Amino acid sequence: MKETIGDRLRSARERKEMDQATLAAKIGVVTRTLQRWERGDQVPDGVAITTIARVTNVQPTWLLTGDGEMYPSPARPANMYELSPSHRRRNMRRAELPVISSVPAGKVATMFHPDYVDDYVTVDDVKDSGAFALKVKGNSMAPRIEDGDIVVVSPQAEARSGDICVIRVNDEDTLKKVKLEGNYIHLIPLNPEFDPVTVRKRDVNFIWKVVKLIKEL
Amino acid sequence: MKETIGDRLRSARERKEMDQATLAAKIGVVTRTLQRWERGDQVPDGVAITTIARVTNVQPTWLLTGDGEMYPSPARPANMYELSPSHRRRNMRRAELPVISSVPAGKVATMFHPDYVDDYVTVDDVKDSGAFALKVKGNSMAPRIEDGDIVVVSPQAEARSGDICVIRVNDEDTLKKVKLEGNYIHLIPLNPEFDPVTVRKRDVNFIWKVVKLIKEL
DNA sequence: TGACAAGACGACAAATATGTCGTATTTTCT
DNA sequence: AGAAAATACGACATATTTGTCGTCTTGTCA
Question: Chain A contact for B41, CB < 8 A?
């Protein structure tokens, strides 16, 4: 059954272990009115929504739409778009990620400098708030991933053998399938025209797992 | 002067460069009502607040209380540089497209029935307002396009030889590379394990060009 | 300057929300 | 098991919101 504002209002009240009369009094309405709201017979107005959220410590957006977390959380990624209830997938996160046209040498901190950020791309289902996108150069992973495609990488995700990753080795960046073996990492192109390379873990500046591919046809 | 919901509502409308009649229509109220809300004479209810936030792309919490950011901002890693507006791509089209889990037999008009719409996916750069997405079943186009991938199709775009298309022939749907030759269309799988097929144009119910591929890795 | 669009707002009717009151049912506690 | 608290809900009156209609003012554009 589709959840209503009233359903969430009741959840919020019950989580605070309040009865209807107590909450109604704190909001400034009679119990009958709160009952109508909880039943979905009537909808609280904007002012009442704000008061309910404050009194029950829930987030107004959650109360209105069900999106996001019920309670404020400092760990929550900053300012994800909230979709309208009628179209949202459960717990789906959409983000606008910067697309970097080339990964510059040097420190990671400078790579988001405006000179390298080419574009933004909108992506659903991004769990890592630090994710971003890279435009692929070269065909070492063709035909699966080709020059000009966009890959979304997740610095937070743990890379495992078999994953396709962006790896920086000695200030040089590459997109490869990886195989982890002891202190070595094998960088395996999918395109047979390229040779695999083995590098030492300690020579790797970073390794970012690719979580999504976006390709124009 | 303390800002009201109405003040923020007016700000949100003006930032979208919308007039009162346009926004009122999108929300589903008459202009007079919007004017009462903007003046603070009356307050929108919870449902209207949600609609206003969605239509103007502001955060509901900001609209209600003024707290937090007016707009959601793109997720970005720490130490991100702020981009100037000139770096943002202009006039980009973003669309939420229905993802159809299977293409039903019969009339095209019924295919968007909720029973077949599995999900929605957000896509940038869609020029055809009639575009939609399909979840791929089968591996005839592997390794480029695999089972479970999502393809965005554009009924408006003209299919040409060499394009990858969704084709319906005699009430059966298939995803193939096409070659147009006189009154015949050759349907060419990319996976060598499948055989090409030739069909007559007149037996083809529709042919939709694939314009974008979305793949989870 | 004049035409038109957009915005503002009052008056009134209709629709909806809220409060009051009372009764019934369910849940909780002893 | 019974009492009390909490919840539910219908009926009706009152309050408020919304829609309609019309008129006026302000802003924009040629």
Answer: no
Residue B209's closest CA among B143, B142, B132, B148?
Answer: B132
Neighbour count for residue A87 (Cβ, 10 Å): 13
| DSSP letter (8 states) at residue A102 | S
Q: What is the residue-level pLDDT of chain B in tens, covering all 217 positions?
A: 578 899 999 999 988 888 999 999 989 999 999 999 999 999 999 989 999 998 888 888 899 988 877 876 433 222 222 223 333 333 344 555 556 555 444 434 344 444 445 566 666 666 665 667 777 777 788 878 888 788 887 766 777 888 888 877 665 677 888 888 777 788 888 888 888 888 777 667 667 788 888 887 7
Decide if A41 touches B, using CB distance below 8 A.
no
Distance CA B128, CA B147 (A): 25
Rounded to two decimals, what is the model's pTM? 0.45
Which single residue is written with the structure tokens 């790579």?
A: A111
B209 is catalytic: no
Residues 6+ apart with CB under 8 A from B114: none
Smallest Cα distance from B72 to chain A, Å: 5
The CA distance from A100 to B73, in Å, is: 18
Q: How far is it, in rounded angstroms, from Cα A86 to Cα A62?
A: 14
Could you tell me which chain A residue has the CA closest to the CA of B90? Answer: A119
ipTM: 0.49
C-alpha dihedral over A107, A110, A112, A114, to 10 degrees?
A: -150
**N-term to C-term CA, chain A:** 39
Measured in angstroms, the CA of B115 and the nearest CA of chain A are apart by 14
Measured CA to CA, the distance from residue B102 to residue B116 in angstroms comes to 6
Write down all domains in chain A, each with its CATH number in brackets. 5-87 (1.10.260.40), 94-214 (2.10.109.10)
3-state secondary structure of B213: strand
